[in-house]
Predict the structure of High-affinity zinc uptake system protein ZnuA.
Amino acid sequence: MKTVRSLSLAALALAPALAAHAEVPRVVADLPAVAALVQQVMGDLGQPETLIAAGSDAHHYQLRPSQARSLQQADLLIWIGPEMTPWLDRAGSGLAANATALALLDLPGTHRQDFGASAAHDHEHEHEHEHEHEAESGHDHDESHAEEGHDHSGLDPHAWLAPGNGRVWLGAIAEALSARDPENAKTYAANAAKARDELAALDAELKSNLAPLAGKPFVVFHDAYGYFTGHYGLTPAIPVSLGDASTPSAARLAEIRDRIAAEGAVCAFPEANHDAGLIATVIEGTGLRQGAALDPEGSLLPPGADHYAATLRSMAKSLTECLGQG
């Protein structure tokens, strides 16, 4: 079966054959943050369609029939990659034969990293606690694995949370659009250059604002923040759930409470589109402050060209408001 990744590796090779009948491409993006980068490059020439609806979870999403039709009609698909949305890799068989795709995680210059050492530590020790807590949780080892869903090691797909990647991707998006629409190549290039400069300025601002938070451990809903904490020099977050935001087992919750005490966590942050009550349960009796919900996908923010910057700003604001107290 044809997959989106198999197309992405040869995405620009089709350009010479397509340029003869070039027009502004019909673009589909997976995440709102990706669509924002595309919109910045397209400017007034066009508007991408975003597959992940506002308030939805990208890890566990099902395309509507209308969205499947949009994929069939798209000239260009721009997405993070199957590590983030495996369901979209399967849906890629519906792309038109002359469509191209750009998997951003595959692009040269993209900073890629595996799920952090803290995640590996959690996963290893969860197995120890599973055996200790089987009787009280009512779940055996196999059931716990069924709950988790799959292996959480390997490449962390939340790479848009490193703004340096956003800058790399803006240039690649401009090249992909220009390959389909050479008449507007100068506009795409100019828009991308402007957006890269704006993102560099935002990055410098956030680095200054977040610097005082270094060395303050905190708890998050799931393991999505390694790029952000690494880039801004923050202590790696303690995730309650793992990389795909699956529901944690009772054994994992016990492990997290142990880590909160051992590492001296300061704050805990719920996450948009996930049960805030779970965070409240985990930190009950610990004395941790509960901060505003983090929204790594920007799923609750207005769509548009400003969405990517707004996502990063929102993350920094929520962290600063809680971790910056005392």
About this structure: The chain has two domains: 27-115+152-202, 212-324.
